[in-house]
Amino acid sequence: MSASVAAGGDVTLQLDGVQVFCDAAPVIVEGRTLVPVRALFEAAGATVDWDGAQNRVCVSYSDIDVTLFVGKKTAQVNGREESMDVPAEILPGNRTFIPVRFVAQALGFLVDWDPDSRTVILDSPEESGIETTTVEAIALSGADGVIRTEITYTGAEPDCRTFAYEAPDRFVVDIRGASIQLADIEGGSGSMPADNAVFSKIRYSQFEADIVRIVFDLNDRQTGVLTTASAEGILYIDFDDPSAPDEPAEETQPEEEASSESNILIPSADWRMTDQLVVIDAGHGGKDPGCLVSSGGTTYYEKDFNLEISLALDRYLREAGVQTHMLRTTDQTLALQERPVLANDLGADLYVSVHNNSAETSVPNGSQVFYYEKASEADYVIGSKALARSILDELLQQIGLADRGIVSQGMYAVLNKTCMPAVIVEGGFFSNPQDRAVMLGDDYTDLYARSVARAIILSLNRAAENGQGGS
Predict the structure, then answer these.
(1) Which of 198, 226, 239, 371 could form a disulfide with 384 if both were Cys (CB 3.0 to 4.6 A apart)?
(2) Is pLDDT of 114 > 80?
(3) Residues 145 and 274 in one domain
(4) DSSP 8-state symbol, 144
(5) What residues have CB less than 8 Å from 130, skipping those under 6 apart?
(6) What percent of the chain has pLDDT above 70?
(7) What does the pLDDT read at residue 246?
(8) Please, which residues bridge with residue 187 across strands?
(9) Are 13 and 40 in contact (CB under 8 A)?
(10) pLDDT in tens, 438-459
(11) Least confident stretch, 140-149, 213-222, 386-395
(12) Does 470 fall in a domain?
């Protein structure tokens, strides 16, 4: 095997609850899981065709065709070109291996990962039991200071991805696992005019078999903010109304003073950066508690602090228009080596690992951020060193612990095995009495989350201003 290919013989495959046995074991290539194409997808009922003359493999399932070319990082899904982080490969034994997550999701399968058993879990569309979303109405409505679009839906809560495009300027919302049922849909698409300061028209369509696309033709470059009222079955897409009068300061000040949260300003993400995906890794979890600290007769676990911070960070980034994915949302065990694999398979653009620190003595103190500059970072809009610096600056300003600096560290798997820029944030030392007093305070986790969110968004927005954003 080449240096970039690692054995994945202990990785098992499960399809619709039944283990699939392959005559060649899965492998890990540049942090992604590749599997033998025929053994898995023919077991799922797909058709697999190999064209040796063009080094091309086509996997067909239901009405979806996925075509991959050996050695190329582009694939075709029903004729549309899409990028992959790793290509299909012909490995020793003359077998064709393909990236399992990309192909399976393109075919409509649900893909999951069990870190305890190291199992790739696939559920076919027929067996997954996944509830789909049906878009039934699109309407404009009024709201204080915003221009609001209401998407009425039934079924599952919408799974949305947002994008921004130039020439002409557009803001795009894709609802995955969805269908659209509107009376004016002809030929799979429709539109409605809009007379406001932000956009001139809303267009909507059944963009792909399982994707509903909603496009705002922008007059004023802006990122929409998505929220869901699941009880009412409504997805809200809000834009700031530039024509709305400013509220008098004296009317808003009492509300700000009454707020229990920090007043750290988290700006909206630049509209050109809405396609960036940030993976949030809540450090430790499950069987791995991280560091422990006892105070006032109570034992605190680092893993719990990390998760609380990560959940808040996820919320703040999403509210600002940034796409996110959390590697764990519960007290779940995740193997160290699996974290970068999952992030790479997702095609993430940034990786942020949330931690807190401890030492054998009470002397070390302060906040610190680790990074590791990799050659692959040249393909991304932000470098890990610059991101580390921005995050630490915000932490120092908002939390106020000592400055331990940013440190290049190539030994950590989540830094050296991820393709995208990655950082490990260490908020403070539980083992230091002064740090601990701050860290056990009521606002520490919120300050931590807000500081990191602000640093990420400011970094993305600077990249956009330097011409590194857009599609």
Answers:
(1) 371
(2) no
(3) no
(4) T
(5) 110, 123, 156, 177
(6) 90
(7) 63
(8) none
(9) yes
(10) 999 999 999 999 999 999 999 9
(11) 140-149
(12) no
102 has pLDDT over 90:
no
Enter the DSSP assignment of 286.
Answer: T
**Residue 331 belongs to a domain:** yes
Task: Give pLDDT tens digits for 412-422.
Answer: 999 999 999 99
pLDDT at 327 exceeding the cut of 80:
yes
Residue type, 398: Q
Q: Tell me, yes or no, whether 311 and 447 share the same domain.
A: yes
Pairing of strands 323-326, 277-282: parallel
Q: Are 223 and 271 in contact, with CB atoms under 8 Å apart?
A: yes
For residue 428, give the nearest of 464, 455, 454, 398 by alpha carbon: 398
The Cα 388–Cα 425 span in angstroms is 8
Cα(124)–Cα(132) distance, integer angstroms: 14
The 8-class DSSP code of residue 275 comes to T
Based on the domain organization, do 40 and 159 belong to the same domain?
A: no
Stretch (H or E) spanning 323? strand 323-326
Report the alpha-carbon distance of residue 378 to residue 432 in Å, rounded. Answer: 38
Number of folded domains that form the chain: 3
Compute the distance between CA of residue 111 and CA of residue 104 in angstroms, rounded to an integer: 7
CA distance 185 to 293: 60
Q: Is residue 432 part of a domain?
A: yes
What gap in Å lies between CA 32 and CA 340, rounded to an integer? 9
Q: Provide the pLDDT for residue 272.
A: 84
Burial of 395 (0-12, 13-18, 19+ CB in 10 A): buried
Which residue has 């392959």 as its token pair? 22
- Establish whether the linkage from the previous residue to 242 is cis, with ω within 30° of 0: no
Element (DSSP H or E) covering residue 2: none
User: What is the pTM assigned to this prediction?
Assistant: 0.61
Lowest mean pLDDT among 113-122, 196-205, 225-234, 347-356: 113-122
* Boundary-marking domain end, from 79, 98, 123: 123
